[in-house]
Amino acid sequence: MAFDPAQPLIVQADRSLLLEVDNPHYPAARDALAPFAELEKSPEHIHTYRLTPLSLWNAAAAGMTAAAMIAVLETFAKFLLPGNLAKDLAEIVGRYGRVRLERAEGGLQLVCSDAALLAELARSRKVKEYLGPPLGPDRFFVAEAHRGVVKQALIAVGYPAEDLAGYTEGAPLPTALRSIAQSGLPFAPRDYQHQAADVFFAGGDARGGSGVIVLPCGAGKTIVGLTVMAQVQKATLILTTSTTAVKQWRREILDKTSLLPHEVGEYTGETKNLAPVTLATYQIVTYRPTKDEEFPHFRLFDERDWGLIIYDEVHLLPAPVFRVTAQIQARRRLGLTATLIREDGREADVFSLIGPKKFDVPWRELETRGWIAEAQCTEVRLPLPDETRMEYAVAEWRNKFRIAAENPHKLDVVAELLRRWPDSQVLIIGQYLSQLRALRDRFDIPLIVGSTGSQEREDLYGAFRRGEIKRLILSKVGNFAIDLPDANVLIQVSGTFGSRQEEAQRLGRILRPKTDGQMAHFYSLVTRDTRELDFAHHRQLFLTEQGYSYHIVDAADLLASSAA
Q1: Which residues make beta-bridge pairs with 57?
Q2: For residue 527, which of 353, 411, 398, 370 has the smallest C-alpha distance?
Q3: How many Cβ atoms are within 10 Å of 44's Cβ, its own excluded?
Q4: Rounded to an integer, what distance in angstroms lies between the CA atom of residue 170 and that of residue 64?
Q5: β-strand 139-141 against 134-136: which pairing, if any?
Q6: Chain-wide mean pLDDT for the chain?
Q7: Pick from 239, 313, 244, 314: nearest CA to 277
Q8: What is the rounded distance in angstroms from the CA atom of residue 245 to the CA atom of residue 229?
């Protein structure tokens, strides 16, 4: 194919991609690259992507071929593709599924039609300890207890296994979706929610039943979970991030399915009620009295004959839960998330133990269709006060970020933004309690932190949903699974270093569609010429991936326009 200098993409032999932002073809190229390329950097003019094995395998698991990936690159490339690239991609993509886990009369087996490759893998230090005796030139026996860890080992050596060994059915649980919710409102899953559930379940076939659904916050991941429950019709364990999220899941289940209150139990620090559908927090599952003891609540995974386990916000899955998940590979496993990015780098464990990405929809596509609110993202840059500059200059490296994040000038910017949005539902989110308490005291706004009791939290969230209070300050508890559909302005005063996943969660707090169709506004306050600005660039990678861009304004201009 001839090259076209008018296109925005430069493809390099090391599988890095450079994409020009100021090019009319940029939006189409960005959307076409998203399924199989990982965004690494997103400064103003040139964005850098990389074709990693995991990004390619996730695309392959979702049905994308190497030829389709090459076609995308050829369509948007300025220059001819490097000669080795097509073969490299075909080789990497072709590794997915070359080895398979299957079930036969003799039990679980690792199967590969390439006898030489299987022999090589069987000699690998990482793989061989999990293999039983050979059952022929093309297969090895695998103990049931090793089903998860052998998949982890295989992905580590570059050959992710396709797991076709099927699942235990689990205890029956008749579950139907209501057409009229208990609230009295009509209910039906949206087309993309149904499609996501169908792709995961795959009609009950062994090729379905494990994997991750990636949807924006506000796009109804919970509804996907309910739809899968109605397809599976089995006892279900749902793991989520907080007691607040447990209560929200329970409300949705009782509102939109045929399940009765006694069939839906909560297993948290406050109550431990087992039921055919049990909702538990990651915190209680990973609790142990001391670091040298076992996790007493791991028994939850064996308390009932679960037919489905749902991992909500799977990008936050704690490390100990990977361990127990490796032992329950015979259960159907659904991961729900807004982003596959994990700050601990364990995306490969999500792939091997929960399953590959099965379905995603770009945020901007759902925004265009009206399923999530249109959002305008603004970064407000401000200087450190003169009296703080010397403190920052001489501070230890690890303390510089906090000094910049707690810039006292941010309170004046918050005051101006509150003045600009007097009738809006405003959330203020930050990392540091001293900063949040200063905001609470200055503006007389309720504050929710980790130590706030669950009943007080629910009362404040309820008052916010009903419009009885219009402003709320949240610590990191505001990052996860909070349903505040009318929030339309979010002010981020500080964050967790360069966390892309946190940016996803926080933007998601204001993306529920608004009844009046109004736009959502996301403000991020950042101190210029500091480490906070460096980390802000990394956080913005997520927004770039989803098709958003920041409008950057100077705090002085913002405040000057107020005084004018």
Answers
A1: none
A2: 411
A3: 11
A4: 32
A5: antiparallel
A6: 88
A7: 239
A8: 18
More confident of the two residues 39 and 158? 158
Nearest to 110 by CA among 70, 71, 153: 153
Determine the pLDDT at residue 375: 78
Confidence class for position 513, pLDDT limits 50, 70, 90: low
Distance CA 355, CA 362 (A): 20
pLDDT-based confidence at residue 480 (cuts at 50, 70, 90)? low
Helix (H) or strand (E) holding 246: helix 243-256
Name every residue whose Cβ is closer than 8 Å to that of residue 468 and which is 6 or more positions away in sequence.
Answer: none
Q: At what angle do helices 531-545 and 500-508 cross, to 10 degrees?
A: 60
CA atoms within 13 A of residue 131's CA, in its CB half-sphere: 21
Q: What is the pLDDT of residues 96-105, one digit of tens each?
A: 999 999 998 8
Sign of CA pseudo-dihedral 257, 260, 264, 266: positive
Please determine, for residue 446, whether its predicted confidence score (pLDDT) is greater than 80. yes
What's the rounded mean pLDDT across residues 272-301? Answer: 90
The Cα angle at residue 251 between residues 250 and 256, in degrees rounded to 5: 100
509 contacts 478 by C-beta, under 8 angstroms: yes
Report whether 513 contacts 372 (CB < 8 A).
Answer: yes
What is the per-residue pLDDT for 505? Answer: 65
Instruction: Return the H-helix or E-strand segment holding 115.
Output: helix 115-123
Contact criterion met (CB below 8 Å) for 464 and 484:
yes
Per-residue CA distances from 73 to 41, 47, 431, 476 (Å)? 19, 15, 40, 39
Q: pLDDT (tens digit, 9 = 90+) per residue, 179-231?
A: 999 999 999 999 999 999 999 999 999 889 999 998 877 788 999 999 999 99
Residue 307: φ, ψ to 5°: -100, -10
- Strand 308-311 relative to strand 332-337, pairing: parallel
Adjacent-strand bridge partners of 278: 237, 265
CB proximity list for 218: less than 8 A, separation 6 or greater:
372, 373, 485, 508, 511, 512, 513
Has residue 90 got a pLDDT over 70?
Answer: yes
Q: What is the DSSP string of 257-325?
A: BS--GGGEEEESSS-B---SEEEEEHHHHT--SSTTS--GGGGHHHHS--SEEEETTGGG--HHHHHHH
Burial of 227 (0-12, 13-18, 19+ CB in 10 A): buried
Cα dihedral sign, 296-299-301-303: negative
Tell which residue, 263, 278, 338, has the closest CA to residue 308: 278
Query: What pairing do the DSSP bridges indicate for beta strands 375-382 and 550-554?
Result: parallel
Q: Which of 215, 266, 211, 207 is nearest to 242 (CA)?
A: 266
- CA–CA separation, 333 and 388 (whole Å): 50
